Amino acid sequence: xxxxxxxxxxxxxxxxxxxxxxxxxxxxxxxxxxxxxxxxxxxxxxxxxxxxxxxxxxxxxxxxxxxxxxxxxxxxxxxxxxxxxxxxxxxxxxxxxxxxxxxxxxxxxxxxxxxxxxxxxxxxxxxxxxxxxxxxxxxxxxxxxxxxxxxxxxxxxxxxxxxxxxxxxxxxxxxxxxxxxxxxxxxxxxxxxxxxxxxxxxxxxxxxxxxxxxxxxxxxxxxxxxxxxxxxxxxxxxxxxxxxxxxxxxxxxxxxxxxxxxxxxxxxxxxxxxxxxxxxxxxxxxxxxxxxxxxxxxxxxxxxxxxxxxxxxxxxxxxxxxxxxxxxxxxxxxxxxxxxxxxxxxxxxxxxxxxxxxxxxxxxxxxxxxxxxxxxxxxxxxxxx
Length: 385
Ligand SMILES: Cc1ncc(COP(=O)(O)O)c(C=O)c1O
Fold this sequence. Notes:
Layout: H1 19-32, E1 38-39, H2 51-63, H3 75-89, E2 98-101, H4 103-115, E3 121-126, H5 130-138, E4 142-147, H6 158-167, E5 172-176, H7 188-200, E6 204-208, E7 231-235, E8 248-251, H8 254-267, H9 273-282, H10 286-309, E9 323-327, H11 335-346, E10 348-349, E11 351-352, E12 364-368, H12 373-384
Parallel strand pairs: 1-10, 3-4, 3-5, 5-6, 6-7
Antiparallel strand pairs: 2-8, 7-8, 9-12, 11-12
Helix pairs in contact: 2-9, 4-5, 4-8, 6-7, 10-12
The protein binds pyridoxal-5'-phosphate.
């Protein structure tokens, strides 16, 4: 298909492709032609949604009526999320502040549209989840990438934010903890300092807490522990193993609830009701989900041992999520070429760092360990051969 002869696309759509998806597409083509590929390229659990979630969805399908809900979501799910904050964080959150979204991806759109005006500058960490940059750009906002590295454990600190803000003020900052692609956790004290700095300078703080529940040391703190001004974005995709159900939630500061509701009514009407009902059951499936997390923990130990042996360097602290972000072995020319060769010759799909860090990503790769232990072990054997 020729793009040049077609209708001109908007300037806002000129954003980077998500290269991990290109690696996945190539891996899928090879799998379809019979090549035994092991994919460590995508950020999604290999495990299915919890049994209770699937049962709840099945019952609802049988009953037949799946409808629009309020734009803010079903009240039973919103109330259950309030209980989740009480039980997991000892936080009391008013139910009015909880909005159910079509995955955290819709949550970002709603948060950005509600909190910012065109041209506003939003600080994000590099390396970071590429969709932040792409959604911000598509919405006419300006991503301000602050490079993080081994000096601060790959974490964006309040001191780094203060320096960037002093040079050219930002109106917002988005922090993920644990983060993608590094898996690093922003410690409680540092998160507190960030929130406090933002409150003091009227900077809107967006906290991506999608990987909460997947932390292998002390549990991650929520930004709500420090203030009721942050916008918290969360999702059922990762800990709850429900990527394809497209269901997540926001906790909004009180003054932004009605604006987000107004935008949500027109943009999405509501999140899918079938997924809302399934998500409600998923919140009561903790034992099953903790068993899955125990599997990631075994995988993580294996990676921590094997990656240095295989020559990977500058490995970011593997605190949480299910990713390792590592420098490619000495002598390799770049991660794009390295990943292409690893896929073609060793039949293992991993992601070049260029998605996550446009300037330094050619030296890094992201390895997802949300697969089975046997698959990970075989993939590492193949890399070592
Ligand atoms: C840090 C981070 N935030 C958000 C998302 C989007 O997740 P979803 O829209 O499925 O909730 C992802 C997906 O990989 C992610 O890694």
